[in-house]
Amino acid sequence: MQLDLLANGDRGAGEVVRFTLPDADVTLWPGFLARSEADRGLVALQRELVWRQDTIQMWGRTYDVPRLQQWCADPGLCYTWSGIRMEPAPWHPLLLALRGRLRALLGIDFNSALANLYRDGRDTVGWHADDEPELGEAPIIASVSLGATRDFVLRHRRRRELPVTTIPLEHGSLLVMRGATQACWEHALPRRLRVAAPRVNLTFRVARAEGSI
Ligand SMILES: O=C(O)CCC(=O)C(=O)O
Ligand SMILES: [Mn+2]
């Protein structure tokens, strides 16, 4: 994994780490949120989002998705994932505030966010790309992490000789993926059995209404 530190110094809000991966554009702001903001956000979102336990069907059996989820979005923007269709929940005030911060930082007006609650290190998300048609070509995904540090792993879809890249996503960090990242790479959040604490992840997206795909 090669890192190109654009700004050095203490873990300030301005520190940016750009990952030099072929066919990808991945940037990390480790201190996007101040510690106190991240602490408050973790508690509030765990308590106040209406977390869904979704299920998936595989080989004729029903399994719980290994995490809790919620889809917050502007009215009318649904999200379909592995056959699960999510109607939008209203924006939580904290998600709205983050949406404003992201607009100021990145110049993008995100209209939706998928929230994941990993109750402990047994909860995971498997290999996938955020390449649903409603996200359009070359989507930009802004991922805010709160709570336990978990490893986020990336692998190239075709060039399997390239090593898997591991990015530990810390409390209060922001990871932004854009350009060809979703077309050329997959990502996952593997099990980490020694992690006992919960983690909330918010992936902000720009989704198009179903009729406009
Ligand atoms: O929890 C994470 O960091 C990743 C979540 C993710 O990939 C997703 O929700 O699509
Ligand atoms: Mn994803």
General description of the model:
With 213 residues, this protein is of the alpha+beta class. The protein has a single domain (31-212), classed as Alpha-ketoglutarate-dependent dioxygenase AlkB-like (Jelly Rolls), CATH 2.60.120. A hairpin with an 8-residue loop joins strand 12 and strand 13 (165-169). It is 15% helix and 37% strand. The chain contains three helices and 16 strands. It binds 2-oxoglutaric acid and manganese (II) ion. The site of manganese (II) ion has 3 residues, from loops.
Strand content: 35-45%
Unreliable runs, pLDDT <50, ≥5 residues?
Answer: 1-11
> How many β strands by DSSP?
16
Principal-axis shape: globular
Structural class of the secondary elements? alpha+beta
Number of domains: 1
The name of the CATH superfamily reads Alpha-ketoglutarate-dependent dioxygenase AlkB-like
Task: Give the second-level CATH assignment, the architecture.
Answer: Sandwich
The largest sheet, given as strand count, sense and whether it forms a barrel, is: 8 strands, antiparallel
CATH class value: Mainly Beta
Proportion of helical residues: 10-25%
Order of helices and strands: EEEHEEEEEHEEEEEEHEE
Q: Please, what is the average pLDDT?
A: 92
- CATH topology term: Jelly Rolls
Radius of gyration: 17 Å
Unique bound compounds:
2-oxoglutaric acid, manganese (II) ion
Give, in spatial order, the strands making up the sheet with the most strands.
1-2-3-14-11-16-9-6
Q: What is the tally of helical segments?
A: 3
Distance between the termini: 36 Å
